[in-house]
Amino acid sequence: MLMGISRVFKTAIAVIVISLAAANQSHAGMPSFELGDIYRLRFQELSFFIFLLLLCAFLFQVMWNYAAKGVDFLPRLNFRRSLCLATLFGLLMLLVLTMISGIREVLTPGAWRKQGSTYRLNDPAQEPVRRRSVEQLRAALFDYARTHDGNFPPHDFAPEVPEKLWESPDQLGSHYVYSGGLTTNNTSSVLAFEPPNFGSPRFVLLVSGEVTLLTNEQIDAKLRSVRGK
Question: From the CB of residue 190, how many other CB atoms can be counted at a distance below 10 Å?
Answer without folding.
Answer: 21
